[in-house]
Amino acid sequence: NSRGTASLLKDSISFAEVSASGLFEGHDLLRRGFTSVRNELLPSHPLELTEKNFQLNQDKTNFATLRNIQGIHAPLKLQMEFRAVKQIQRLPFLHSSNMAMDILRGNDECIGFEDILNDPSQSEVMGEPHIMMEHKLGLL
């Protein structure tokens, strides 16, 4: 019966869901902090979603404006440059200023909230370099 076999395959659990990073993985309290069901379901303030997506919305508006003014090549070129800059990163335990991304977005001459209150010496990302690299490479 070919229909029965197809329905069995569709209802089966995939291997990715059973793997270490899948369905049965426990919550890593040291890396992700405490969880709250309420925070996962609803934003705490109506403007929270707008603030989280501010840069994405601003990029979409800039790309639409560029497309209307200069054509399709301008936003495509800028998106390729964004991808190239995002791929170049420091090691996970070293602080990065993302200066190239600021230059592409035009924020290199602006002083913002994160420039003053984002002191790398007070960062919670500081940790054991070997453990952080193993986590990034998926060995842990």
From TrEMBL:
Coiled coil: none annotated. The keyword Repeat does not apply. Pfam families: UMP1. One of its GO terms (cellular component) is cytoplasm. InterPro entries: Ump1. The keyword Nuclease does not apply. GO terms for biological process: proteasome assembly. Keywords: Chaperone. Belongs to the POMP/UMP1 family. This is POMP protein. It comes from Anthoscopus minutus (Southern penduline-tit). The gene is Pomp.
